[in-house]
Each structure stands twice: as C-alpha cells, then as structure tokens.
Design brief:
Length: 158
C-alpha cells in the first residue's frame, strides 16, 4: 500500500532528493531544444500565412498560438522521440555517476566493464523497445498536431 511515510521518507522526500539530478538531466537537453525552437519560431514568423494573419488583425499572441506553435511543435516532437534513444542512456549514465544513484546507466556501464553480454543485450533490447514506442507515440501526435498527416481512406481503384 502506498503510504505517506516510508523508510525513504515518502514521496515528497524522494522527489526533493531527485530534483537536482532531474534538473541536471534536463539541462543537457535544454540548450539543444531551446535553440531548435527559437530557429523554428523565427523561420515560421517570416511565413506569408503568419504575416497575413497579423494583417487581418490577429494579435501577436493569437497569431503565435494559432499559426506558429502548431507548426513548430511537429519537428520538436520528432526530435524528442529520436533523442530519447540517442542521448538518454549516456546522459543517464553521467547523472547517475555524478549523483551516486543506482540505475540503468550504471548497470550498463558495469556490464560493459564485466563484459556481461546478457545484461548488455537486455538493456539494449529494452532501450530499443522504448525508442520504438516513443516514435510510435510521436507519429500519433503528428496526426493531432498536423491535420495534413491524418490518415484518409484509400481511393477506390478505377
């Protein structure tokens, strides 16, 4: 049963102790995503349809919310799905080592040192499955974010 107090101090203490590792993990990705989002927003703001929306009387915020952000979110979602597999395990290894936390990154590192192939294969299979699952979720989000991607029935053969 989930209780407010356990031997580790409860969920509040657990979250407080992991706050700094979470911030460190996020900081690795923050600059990359901030740069990409800024470039995408800057590019999208120069598009004709955004200029036309502003000329028709939409405020800057309304134009941003209705026209810019939906177009910027599509590449961000794709990048997030792809970066999960490429950067998550090495970053987890760094954060776990720096803060002395037990986790999959440390297990992966120790398996490499011991040449423990079953553990390495298991971590790689699980990591690959997570990447495939997140890419599936990203593809489904594309249909929500971009109506041009939605599936339509195939035309009848002639």
């Amino acid at each position: 049963m989930f209780g407010p107090e356990t031997s580790c101090g409860g969920p509040v203490q657990w979250a407080l102790h992991l706050l700094l590792p979470w911030i460190t993990f996020a900081a690795v990705f923050a600059a990359l995503y901030t740069r990409m989002i800024r470039a995408s927003v800057t590019e999208t703001l120069q598009e004709d349809y955004v200029k036309q929306a502003r000329a028709k009387g939409l405020s800057e915020w309304q134009a941003m919310r209705a026209h810019v952000l939906p177009n910027v979110l599509v590449p961000v979602v794709a990048m997030l799905a792809m970066d999960t597999g490429r950067l998550a395990l090495p970053t987890a290894l760094f954060v776990e080592t720096a803060f002395g936390l037990p986790g999959i990154g440390r297990i992966f590192y120790q398996a490499i040192l011991r040449n423990d192939l079953p553990v390495l294969a298991g971590i790689i299979v699980v990591s690959s499955a997570i990447v495939v699952l997140l890419n599936l979720v990203a593809d489904l989000l594309f249909a929500v974010l971009d109506p041009r991607v939605r599936a339509s029935p195939l035309p009848a053969p002639v």
